[in-house]
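Marked as duplicate of an earlier ticket. Keeping the data here for the record.
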Amino acid sequence: MMENRGLKNRKPLSNAIETKLWYDLDNLAKDTRINKSKLLDEAVSDLLKKYGNPTKK
């Protein structure tokens, strides 16, 4: 079983994205001083709004 690494309200996620997207995300995080996890939360939330949240159907 995977250790939760002390995470209480988060789930660990491992995935791959396009290299350019990674560098753009990294630069955005540095420029805004918002960590990548929070930026990814916002991006996923926006996608769920766009396509609908399947868990709420």
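See parent ticket for discussion. Residues 19-56 form one domain.
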